[in-house]
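Ticket #4471: structure export looks truncated?
Reporter: QA, pipeline team
Priority: medium

Steps to reproduce: submit the single chain below to the structure queue and open the exported record.
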Amino acid sequence: MQLKRRTLAAFAAPCLPLTGVGLPLVVYLPPYYAGTLGLDLAMTGILFSAVRWIDLPLDIVFGHWIDRTKTRFGRFRPWLGVAALFLVLGLAMVFFADPGLTPLRAFLGLFLLYGGFSAAQVAHTSWGQALSTDYHERSRIFGWWQGFNMLALISLLAVPPLANALGPRWGLEPSAALGVHAMGWVLIALVAPTFIAALWAVPDRASAHASPHGWADIKAALKRPLLQRLLLIDLFASLPPGFGGALLVFFFEAARGFSVTEARLLLLFYFAAGLIGAPLWGWVARRTSKHMAVAWAIGSYAVLHAMLVLMPSGGFWVAATGMLLAGLPAVAPPFLVRAMLADVTDAETLESGRSNAGLYYAVLVGVQKLGYAIPVGLAYIVLDMVGFDAKLGTANTPQAIDGLVLLFLIPPILAALAAAWLARGWTIDRAAQARIIAALDSKGVTP
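Actual output as written to the record:
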């Protein structure tokens, strides 16, 4: 049975603020902290990477407890509600940090923000898995999830340039700080209405087999080949946009001669393509399978990313066209992998007799974090080693700019090709998933 569109919209609504803790934060905050706030470039990279590594065990803890949760309010609602409070406090600390902040102050704000994000993201995505057992309906559910993510990315990335354009009308001088603060206010304002919409309008269907599990069960679950393969697909598929987000402003400013404003405007073309790409790749998945759609999407991303970087500089609109094309396939893996994980959860429930949905989606959230943490930490440290200065732009040495270009080109392509290769070997298609659900029904097991 298909879910109503208003239910899907209410489910996807929290993506609007949660998306701000993903790529927009990686694109805007590290350069802002290293440039405007005066934090050391290498230290900035270490902090934004380390906080996600340290926060990683929290995902497992949250998933563990979500699978144990049974309340009269539901299984996922309590976690989403509490997470909203921590998310607001973390957003305030991170987006409104003062110049001269210490590494400790920066770390505490980021840790609080990512803690709230972890709880919300794990509860939210595992809730999506529980909304349907149909193979293609799950693609539709997470297609809406991804569509709202794309809408949020386009809207949020437009906030800083819009704030700087309108600021003088209210006596505010355009600056990086004005753009970051405006984004912070927008995100904080979005948390309450979007989370309330989900808590009010989305059914929270508890699983009769979401039984408590211990840490030994968690270890056993993480050793399952299907889950391990899917996690690797997601990690390798997350690395390319992670590197792109961390380096995009530097690449287009220092290597292509665009202004910071133009560089960030190019991101709008990238994510605008995602609004077209999400339904396109959903259609491909329905005509073939989810895993083949992932393989084709991430494989074509590798080719288009190489063309974007290697083509000679031809002005803003040439770069915008390249970003538009690269954005079409980049949108597919995030929502299709999450739909694939719902099928994995059913398969493992059939084998073990228990639902570990919260745990599995917690691990996937952790992998997503690594997909952004590794590029920021690695890229900023390497840039510092080759002598790149975030404040110099095109005045950097040729060697430093060459190092930047290579970092922007090679790691994303290698990671994308690895993800495509792994996706091609996936074993759960529509027929296999239908057999799994039939077997669960025959045993009276609720996925």
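Status: closed, not a bug. The export was complete when the record was re-opened. Leaving a note from the reviewer for reference: The CA atoms of residues 58 and 111 lie 11 Å apart.
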